[in-house]
Amino acid sequence: MSSVASECAFITGGRILDPFRSSLTPKCVQCLICVQAWLRQEIKPICVEESLEFLEKIELEMANSGRSSSIVDL
């Protein structure tokens, strides 16, 4: 078992993980890289009012065109 600084452990640029250098499975490495991307992602606020207005507009258009709505009340 070896220890490395956390800054180095998750830097993906220029590093190659192979069976001799890592005991992580490919699936585990893929998961870690995805989590890293999610954590670094910019957080954007969600405007519920705009989304609700958009969905209500679609529902009205579908009702006026004679098609049944696929939106289900929970």
UniProtKB/TrEMBL annotation:
Residues annotated as domain HAT C-terminal dimerisation: 1-39
InterPro entries, A to Z: HATC_C_dom
GO MF annotation terms: protein dimerization activity
Domain of life: Eukaryota
Protein name per Swiss-Prot or TrEMBL: HAT C-terminal dimerisation domain-containing protein
Species this protein is from: Solanum chilense (Tomato)
